[in-house]
Amino acid sequence: MKDTSKHLGLRNQLVTLLENKGIVDKNVLEAIRIIPRHLFLNSSFEDFAYQDKAFPIGAGQTISQPYTVAYQTQLLQVKKGDKVLEIGTGSGYQTAVLCTLGAKVYSVERQNELFKATALLLPKLGIRAKHLSFGDGYKGLPTHAPFDSIIVTAGAPQIPNALLAQLKIGGRLVIPVGTKKQIMTVLVRKNETQFEKHECGDFQFVPLLENKS
Q1: Is 64 a known active-site residue?
Q2: What span, in angstroms and rounded, lies between the C-alpha atoms of 208 and 144?
Q3: Which of 64, 91, 107, 133 is catalytic?
Q4: Which of 93, 44, 95 lies closest to 64 in space, CA to CA?
Q5: Which of 4, 70, 81, 163 has the greatest number of C-beta atoms within 10 Å?
Q6: Vertex 186, ends 21 and 33: CA angle to 5°?
């Protein structure tokens, strides 16, 4: 598991690309610069790890393209010490970005093979999520709620009410909503019953799967 000066050079190029595509959050860009994305991919993809592309990671899932990771994270407006719920641990790359930003990350993964692999990988890379869970992302983690923010890394046909209920007042939910194509949606909780909604462009994600105990 090597991270070389060549890899760092490729990450620097990737950060420049993300800046050119409109990512302005310096902390997010620095996290992308620090994290060795190639170690979250199958070794056969290593030469392509710093292209702005999604890649398969097994179990029918993908690691999102770096721009999508950076864009969602920027929308989340993470502050150091924030308690963040991530729905869809996947490869653990997004988890690593959030941890690097100083968030206390609680993450849920539906696919057991990915959950097991990522639970082993993250500590090897020195990344300490607060809690990794195997289960149904639609349900969130009510026993650990409320959260300062929630990020969903798969396309949901609708916004799960359970996730809205687990958000602190003033908290933000970033979720891609739709079936074939998704609209990146931000909901900010104003009070017990009201949410402010913003739509932030079209994306394409693997579907958020339900009904896993």
Answers
A1: yes
A2: 21
A3: 64
A4: 93
A5: 70
A6: 40
Q: How far apart are CA 174 and CA 153, in angstroms?
A: 9
Task: Give the pair of three-digit tokens for residue 8.
Answer: 């760092």
Q: What is the pTM of this model?
A: 0.95
User: What value does the mean pLDDT take over residues 19-35?
Assistant: 98
Both tokens of 43, joined, read 């070794």
Q: Are 177 and 197 in contact (CB under 8 A)?
A: no
Q: What is the pLDDT of residues 122-139, one digit of tens each?
A: 999 999 999 999 999 999
Name the residue with tokens 């000066």.
5
Q: Provide the CB-side half-sphere exposure for 111 (13 A, CA).
A: 20
Q: What is the C-alpha separation between 181 and 84, in angstroms, rounded?
A: 25
CB 66 within 8 A of CB 52: yes
The pLDDT of residue 211: 62
Residue 52 CA: distances (Å) to CA of 14, 21, 67, 121, 174 = 7, 11, 6, 22, 21
